[in-house]
Write a structure and sequence with these properties.
- The chain contains eight helices and nine strands.
- The protein is α/β, with parallel strands linked by helices and 273 residues long.
- It has a single domain, classed as Rossmann fold.
- Strands 5-8-7-6-9 form a five-stranded mixed β-barrel.
- It starts with a helix and ends with a helix.
Length: 273
């Protein structure tokens, strides 16, 4: 694994105009900010050594590098999921490459189903914590000592100071933003009514099929993580409505401009490290 990471880094480093300080991962239909970025580099994942390929509609499958709010950023336009057949360490592979390239912050956006009955479609939710129900972990196997400890502490996987910055910038934009717990599930089937009721009972406010593996790997690498979920549909177990991928993509695209404006302001506020 370390050899593969080193090979990917060696391929990318000469192509980067500036050392990236911030890494971004965008989810289904949520690449608006990176699309308007003045990119110095844009590469299909398939051209990068050992990168998986993105197979899901709404995920462009390109790595972009450039500047947002004057800060050097490297961004994944689309992510990978366990349900595509990848292992957890493969899903987390780009996070480790970003860390080796010098990234200190990992910012993520994702589409999620709302479990909190107070939420509405189109809401943005700051992820304050997560529950891993994927049945696996990207740190399984020999520990990569060069990246982090065997048993990384996850008590503040989403640091409060980053959540506070996001809240303050949302207020400046006159934007309401929720916060809550994200539960990561394997997918790709959506939740039954009984599963939805169970997830809410264990304390989750939103459910999705991404984010968790990348967060675990990022924390292991010593990165500070900020994640925002777009609530694309509301899952209420007693009155469940059918949801399709097309519905999720459309809801994400409608929210994209607001989320893009918020990310740009957050990036401008991140402490220089």
């Amino acid at each position: 694994m370390e050899a593969k990471i080193s090979e990917a880094v060696a391929f990318l480093r000469p192509l980067l105009k500036d050392q990236p300080e911030i890494g971004m991962i965008t989810g289904t239909g949520l690449a608006r900010l990176t699309e308007k970025m003045a990119a110095d580099l844009r590469l299909p994942y398939e051209e990068i050594p050992h990168f998986p390929g993105s197979t899901v509609e709404g995920h462009k499958g390109t790595l972009a590098a450039g500047h947002i709010a004057g800060r050097p950023v490297i961004a994944m336009e689309g992510r990978f999921h366990l349900y595509e057949g990848y292992k957890a360490h493969e899903v987390a592979f780009p996070v480790r490459v970003m860390a080796r390239l010098g990234v200190r912050y990992l910012l993520m956006s994702s589409a999620a189903g709302g479990l909190n009955p107070q939420f509405e479609q189109g809401d943005l939710m700051l992820i304050t914590d997560h529950i891993n129900l994927k049945g696996t972990n990207p740190l399984i196997g020999p520990n990569l000592e060069a990246f982090g400890p065997r048993f990384p502490d996850m008590s503040q996987a989403y640091p409060p100071y980053l959540i506070r910055i996001a809240q303050e910038e949302a207020i400046q934009l006159g934007m309401m933003i929720r916060q809550g717990v994200y539960v990561g599930v394997l997918g790709p089937s959506l939740e039954t009514r009984a599963e939805t009721r169970f997830l809410r009972m264990i304390g989750a406010d939103a459910v999705g099929m991404s984010t968790v593996s990348q967060t675990i790997a990022a924390v292991h690498c010593g990165l500070d993580v900020l994640a925002i979920a777009v609530i694309t549909n509301i899952n209420l177990p007693d009155c469940m409505e059918q949801t399709s991928l097309e519905d999720v993509i459309e809801a994400s695209r409608k929210t994209g401009p607001r989320l893009s404006d918020l990310w740009e302001r957050i990036i401008g506020r991140l402490p220089t490290r």
